[in-house]
């Protein structure tokens, strides 16, 4: 019996066992007999020795970075009437570091894929190179770069995809640990997997980065197909594209990707002239609460500063890294980023970096890291001194200062990142985020798809309830 059929049949027989997806008893997660049967039919994939776990097999898997050439189905408009003119060829390859591509080529693809008003600083060459050079997103940490590159017949780079071969699910913010657990229960390897994303950063943006030209739609399709081909070539469980744009999410469904949604909290600038102007859109009780929270900051003699570009010195990064480690070293935390990352990013990204700091008697006691790109301010990381307690400082540094900065800079949005329903009452409303998942095994794909149907219903219901309990006056969304 084929493996996919075995998984599907086992899942169909299971009606009364618990699920690591939802903790309930859905139809398609199997009994012990089914699992044992599936283990016999489907031997676990051999894991490559790309990663450090000594328990893994030492057998090395061959990885061929070439994905061949594709011929476009159309020619350029100016060539359409030329007799005998053949459509151009596009070659697809894989590089193991973004440094193998020039910054001009990468940023041209990233910038033209979105337009200047939506330019995403996390997709920039500077940000991604900083992650690699500082040993944050590298093989040793379970993030092996496998960036996909599309070139035309003259070797011009016309499209790129940020891509990583991963040995775990940390630093993604679209949680599939329960999927990995289910694979394990059936004796099947879930890792390694391919992940197209910005490491450690739950930020929405284009993932298939193609230059804005007549061939854009065709190259998009070629790159998506190349991602699928690479997944099959590596003989791994799955390919995941997390936090893509909504348009990409819709298009990838046509290529056999499962669709998933999530939720974040964003603040919208309704042409406010100052912070008080924003507060006037809120219900009286919410407006009063925010003003009281901000008064407590001044009552503690805390001084807030917003620093950009060259204003951020090494001493600020030293302090902020201590704050960051104070946050990540607590229970459940993980320090994904190194001190060198902040140094490299700050030097390369200049005024795209906004560091909000809090001073108590001229001593730095807390900070919040933000990036600016296009029409958006992206709130990312927060931390404070160990054992320090300043009531409401987190709200001030992460939310209110970000709003003030966005108004001053005439930015349309503040993205406050994942999690935190407390953001809603401070003006940050829930918005939908997206992810796409290509699951190779038919049986697991069916089970995961059924789970996603139920999860999508729950996410939409939760978003409606949160919107209905929002802080704004009636008629203001």
UniProtKB/TrEMBL annotation:
**Is Glycosyltransferase among this UniProt entry's keywords?**
no
Q: Provide the coiled-coil residue spans.
A: 280-310
What's the protein called, per UniProt? Answer: Acyl-CoA N-acyltransferase
Which UniProt keywords are given for this protein, alphabetically ordered?
Coiled coil
Q: Does the keyword Coiled coil apply?
A: yes
User: What domain of life does the native source organism fall in?
Assistant: Eukaryota
Against InterPro entries, the record matches this protein to:
Acyl_CoA_acyltransferase (IPR016181), FemAB-like (IPR007434)
